[in-house]
Amino acid sequence: MVLPREFFDRPSAKVAKDLLGKLLWRDTSEGKCGGRIVEVEAYEGAKDSAAHSYRGLTPRNASMFGPPGHAYVYAIHSRWCVNVVTEPEGVPTAVLIRAIEPLSGLELMARRRSESLLARRARQAAEGSGVFAVIDQTILPRRQRERLPTTSLPMLLRPRDLCRGPARLCEALAINRQQDGLDLTLGRELWIEEDAAFKLTPRQIARSPRIGISTAQERLLRFYIRNSQFVSGKRERI
DNA sequence: CGCCCGATGCTCT
DNA sequence: GAGCATCGGGCGG
User: Measured CA to C1', what is the nucleotide nearest A131?
Assistant: First the structure.
């Protein structure tokens, strides 16, 4: 069942917690892929100094002010991250989807991630900037001494690393600013489904401060599945 | 493993 | 012009 608008028309922290275990699906001309949501963060708008909407409406964050159940996609450090807008229209709160456990379309996701990674390496090499350079007509780390890549593509693209982190997730699912504002309740292009067979007990849900923010670090608005290997950032040892 | 650092481009001041 | 809800590579332990 595709999650309906009412699901998202609730306090963002509640929506965040309830999104754990749900299935995120992406369908494009390249095919369908998706997986289980294992890590999210709530952003609480005007009362949350870490939220993009804290200082009011701008062209970038306009989707956060729109109706619940739509996507808010933004760029950070030349990468994309996707949120689901929550609470009634005009209340600019949202839930950042930080990681999924890939379950379907792994090949498609790996292809997109490897293409992006190789393109980034190639651009760095071509521009003579960054870590990579063209050495013997091959793109290698500039300071590579033995001329063998230390971090191989298969290593980076093992299932665990396909969608672990908000920007990797968007890369694997081909989500970018074109999906900003998209209605996620239609069950087309991008949507979230209930998985009736999958249940989480309260003990399996962990919460922590949000990752990578400087303000409001005392707020525990990051939620993740405690024993999942597909969660980004720090997890407690099992 | 953990920590540090640079890439890179968009957004808002 | 500064800041950023990130990522991947290098290096030290």
Answer: C9
Residue A205 maps to which CATH number? 3.10.300.10
Q: Token digits for A18?
A: 């309830």
Nucleotide showing the shortest C1' distance to residue A57 CA: B12
Shared domain check, A9 and A120: no
Q: In chain A, what are the helix, strand and coil shares in percent, each to the nearest 5?
A: 25, 30, 45
Kindly state whether residues A79 and A175 are assigned to the same domain: yes
Same domain, A34 and A143: no
pLDDT at res. A145: 43
Give, as ranges, the nucleotides of chain B with any atom within 7 Å of a protein CB.
2, 6-13
Neighbours of A136 (CB within 10 A): 6
- What's the pLDDT at A158? 84
Instruction: Tell me which protein residue sits closest to nucleotide B11, measuring alpha carbon to C1'.
Output: A60
Q: Does A134 lie in the same domain as A22?
A: no
Q: pLDDT (tens digit, 9 = 90+) per residue, A159-199?
A: 998 999 999 999 999 999 999 999 999 999 999 999 999 99
Residues 6+ apart with CB under 8 A from A125: A132, A133, A134, A139
- The bases of strand C with some atom under 7 A from any protein CB are 4-11
Q: How many Å does it take to go from CA A77 to C1' B13?
A: 19
Question: Which nucleotide does the CA of A62 lie closest to, via C1'?
Answer: B11
